Amino acid sequence: MFKLKKCLLTVFVLSGYYSFAQPSIVVHKFDSLYQVCLYTGDNQVHCAGRYATEMDSMLNVVYSMLRVRCDTNGRVKLKNEQDQWIIERDKYFTTVSTENVDKEMSGEGEQVIVLGKEAGYVRKRVVQLIDRLTY
Fold first, then answer.
1. pLDDT classification of 38: cutoffs 50, 70, 90
2. Contact 52, 38 (CB under 8 A)
3. What pTM did the predictor assign?
């Protein structure tokens, strides 16, 4: 079922780009679905995990689309930039995990906060790359 959702996500995102729809609408749709899922109060860790996975998948799709538009030098520059972003992301993820361990909150609440912050960090990168695609 997850592979079907991922496939549909990819088709939806790609169709949005090729029809000149605003790609950021897809990101906002995921944001809305995430908020609705959290609001229900049922299995919020699952909601946060799914949102993090969706943002990661979106990052991969947008990065690939931007890479295709680049010439050879642009691809090298984009790859180097993405490699540096991944290093910074990993540092941020470690910091987020560590700072939440030090707090009194634990269990599912902590997981939701950590996953939400991680997804938010990836979301920022997705939006940066979308902006480069649309200009």
1. confident
2. no
3. 0.78
